[in-house]
Amino acid sequence: MKISPGASLSALAIAFIINAAQAQIATNSFLTLVKTNGNTVSLTLSNCGNQVWTVQSSSDLVHWTNVENLKVFNGFYHRNYTNSNGSRLYYRVYYAISSQNIADTVSNALILPETNFNYSQPVLPASFKNPAIAVQDNTPGINPTTDAGATLGRVLFYDKRLSTNQTLACGSCHQQATAFADPRRFSVGFNGSAGSRNAMGLSNARWYERRHFFWDERANSLESQTLNPIQNPIELGMTLDVLTNRIASEPFYTNLFAGAFGDSNITTNRIAYALAQFVRSIITTQSRYDIGETQGFTNFTAEENLGRLLFFGQTSSPGFPAPTCSQCHASDNFVPALSLNNNGLEYPYVDLGVGGISGATNQYGLFKVPSLRNIALTAPYMHDGRFTNLAQVVAFYNSNIVSGPNLSAPLIGKGGKPLQLGLSADQQAALVAFLNTLTDTNLLANPLLSDPFNYGD
């Protein structure tokens, strides 16, 4: 029996019994009870929405004692139960309508520190204070990042209530384990439908001087961008009225909004502001490249240093006459300044990119250029995810750039032909090795950026 999230059930819709003294398993599509070892029983609830489930135990299958009521958030909960006296116990789990009124409080819904994490004053390397990067900071004066605001944004980012059927969150497609990118070629929405583009990574989104977002830059601010996926009919499928009503019905949000904005009033602007504050807090500055900058790159291998020189055009190696990589991925944030770019991926254009929004033919095939930080973690690559690894990306720039009317100037060589890199196999491998040094594994385990919901043990 499959139960959809939020479904109305009878008082005892389902009961699974597990004998803790025998190796029995009870399971269906959303609930599993299994004896793991000794006198321990493991309970896992999944894909069951935001509901309350009652756990009971019995020694005779006749008389049942309530163990606890479990409030499940985001459709997942895990708990282990141990019978310390060694006697035989049976367990069952059931859904009761009468138990659904347990309040969602900060203490039972979330695992947050007593004092908010520091989001407002991140420790940045000296290079990020230089004018070349400082000017890229797109934080608006009306929405500075605060500790309470980013904390609220973090909760919203991972809350599946933001999708119409409560199955997906922002963090479903922007996963911390892959540097807040989507490992699938095309992101999949709440109803299982796939889009036509890959969700780009969010690392250092705070530093993008053009201040426009999405591959086609249709959002004119990060604040505006955050509400787009929520309303997209393929992605999260919500309306803003339903969104605010749903969030306002959760008691724990009352405290979070009051802490972030001074009162508990919940509006779409405040949701957008909080989400943008959290996304701007996804900062990566602890890669081997960052360490190398302070040590003259003595921490690099010979291959990685060769790749670095090739990337920045600081070598006279034949076939690499111009610093084309760093012209489009400049500064220590590895993003362009104010330019839009067409990298010669295809012609005729299958995806019009920015031109599809503006209607300007000279912008056909132009796309936002993401930061290369954590690029080794964010495969697949390009707006349509056509390349599965960095070797394929380098091979494309090495010999497969396609000529077209809007090809970016750094990629145009003599006679108007595409400027292919023309590197040897060893040089291509060196370039990949350098790109790998931009990986910041600390980002993947940073508690400031992790899912804060309480999923039990």
Give a brief description.
26% of the residues lie in helices and 10% in strands. It is of the alpha+beta class. β3 and β4 (40-46) form a beta hairpin.
Provide the descriptors you would attach to this structure in a database record:
single chain, 457 residues, alpha+beta, Cytochrome Bc1 Complex, Chain D, domain 2, 15 helices, 8 strands
Any chance you could write out the topology, listing elements then pairs?
Layout: E1 16-19, E2 25-27, E3 31-37, E4 40-46, E5 52-58, E6 65-71, E7 76-82, E8 90-94, H1 106-109, H2 131-134, H3 147-158, H4 170-173, H5 222-231, H6 240-248, H7 251-261, H8 268-280, H9 288-293, H10 302-311, H11 324-328, H12 354-358, H13 390-399, H14 425-436, H15 442-445
Antiparallel strand pairs: 1-8, 2-3, 3-4, 4-7, 5-6, 5-8
CATH superfamily of the largest domain: Cytochrome c-like domain
Number of helices: 15
Given this structure, which CATH class of the largest domain is correct?
Answer: Mainly Alpha
- The secondary-structure element order is EEEEEEEEHHHHHHHHHHHHHHH
Q: What separation lies between the terminal Cα atoms?
A: 26 Å
CATH topology of the largest domain: Cytochrome Bc1 Complex, Chain D, domain 2
Count of domain modules: 3
Structural class: alpha+beta
Whole-number average pLDDT? 88
Low-confidence spans: 1-29
Number of strands: 8
